[in-house]
Amino acid sequence: MKNIDQIRAEVDRACSEIGVNEWEFIVSSQSSLSASMINYELVESSSSQDYGITLRLIYEGREGSVRSDRVDKEIIPLLVRKAYENSAIKEKDPSFDPEIYFTDMKYPEKNAPSSYTCTASEMKKVLLQTQKVLFESDSRVGEGTGSDIAASRGESFLVNSMGLFLSNSFSSSYLASQVVVKDGNEVRTAFCAKEGNVPDLDMRETVTKAVRKLHARQLSGGVYKIVFSPECFNMFLSAFSCAFSGKNALLGLSPYKGKMGKLIASPLLSLVDDPLYPGYSMQKTYDGDARATFKKHVIRNGRLETLLYNRQWALKAGCESTGNGASTSAGSIISPFSFYVEKGSRSFDELLEECKDGIYVTGMKGFHAGADPVSGDFSIESSGFRIAGGKVMEPVDGFTVAGNFFQLLENISAIADDLEFDVTVSPFRTGSPSILVTSLSVAGKE
Description:
By secondary structure, the chain is of the alpha+beta class.
């Protein structure tokens, strides 16, 4: 972005005119290209160039902020005025003094790979080849099978009146397939998404996942040992990550207030937040409060080591920020980055052997309605496979897994070494290996 210096000068000028000396803005730009194909027909192709600016200022101890999708020097006076008006109507928080931040702290270096870039015609070729491979891999792959491809890159800048000038570039690309298989009157589907150099990605495992679901039987209700696939446990982490927010703990919306250093999970569990996870293309070296980011254990060997904080809620809690601030038009919020369960030492087969008899849960849906992030209670429609004698057996579906997430963490009895992250174009993602839980209630057929 070439006009950062012009924007900085205009913000400084507009703020000076109304007597504001403390200001900060974050400017971002992102270009994206995507395409979708169903069967062998290209059904969608789009490109976009998005911009955004979030402006924050402090006047008489009160903070005001505003966001706009338009980024040019002409709109700056209006944004400054709006932020100033917002500060005037905002009540001063006696427990928090807003600040424009500057320090001589050393920010970490990024080590993120470059993502795949291509033209629309190249995307079409990749989709055609992917579809061809999917349809030829099994005669039961049917109409409705489709693939999506997307690539994006961008940059952001954080600039303030204290002389701070930070920049961050990012890129991401992924290929996803939704496979439909038909066997007689039975229809099953499976989805898979992968990041990386898109032309090299093999999506045939999506067909395997769909075919394995054929001829599933219903499961009888009861209490079972459960092995959660990485994909499913990632859903738990996403749904309940807010429980590890320092803000939510202080507000009574998390059970972890006052639990620092205490055993809150199985000693096998270590939960990490790492903004600089090796190989991740969306690494972040600074947060929305301009704090340097760093890797931290939220849970280590079952004990709570830290909650996640931005500057505001760290001050309220009487501790240091963990560098987990994210800037929004309403101010700074708390957000994880690469939030994952550390892998264990067992192979997946060894995990199954320890389970002996139970259920391997590979599909879950309805977390938005079936999970309560405050109480931890969940009741989720699920599917997967029966485990017998330490082996994965026939597919099962039509059952609901229910329990409490906080108790589930305590009941983890084994963790595999097959760590997988979800696929996202956001700096926040979750990761987990396969996890064995000693017992959970399952509602199935009568």
